[in-house]
């Protein structure tokens, strides 16, 4: 996974995260998308609606970065 240090992460736009309000789970490249999908259930402190929106963001990012998800994040 390409390194995403604090400086680079701070420069990302909110839309580049699965959970933009919390700035959790960046979706900047294929490896980060796979990581976001794999750790989806570990995210705490978000509403059901935020999780549903994040699921859609992860799916869109997966298509964009050529990542095949074996199953939907859930």
Automatic annotation (TrEMBL):
<feature type="compositionally biased region" description="Basic and acidic residues">
    <location>
        <begin position="65"/>
        <end position="74"/>
    </location>
</feature>
<feature type="compositionally biased region" description="Basic and acidic residues">
    <location>
        <begin position="1"/>
        <end position="26"/>
    </location>
</feature>
<protein>
    <recommendedName>
        <fullName>DUF3606 domain-containing protein</fullName>
    </recommendedName>
</protein>
<feature type="region of interest" description="Disordered">
    <location>
        <begin position="1"/>
        <end position="33"/>
    </location>
</feature>
<dbReference type="Pfam" id="PF20223">
    <property type="entry name" value="DUF6582"/>
</dbReference>
<dbReference type="InterPro" id="IPR046489">
    <property type="entry name" value="DUF6582"/>
</dbReference>
<feature type="region of interest" description="Disordered">
    <location>
        <begin position="45"/>
        <end position="74"/>
    </location>
</feature>
């Amino acid at each position: 996974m390409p390194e995403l240090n604090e400086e680079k992460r701070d420069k990302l736009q909110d839309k580049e995260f699965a959970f933009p309000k919390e700035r959790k789970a960046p979706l900047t490249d294929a490896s980060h998308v796979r990581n976001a999908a794999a750790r989806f259930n570990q995210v705490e402190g978000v509403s059901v609606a935020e999780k549903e929106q994040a699921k859609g963001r992860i799916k869109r990012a997966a298509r964009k970065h050529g990542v095949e998800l074996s199953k939907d994040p859930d």
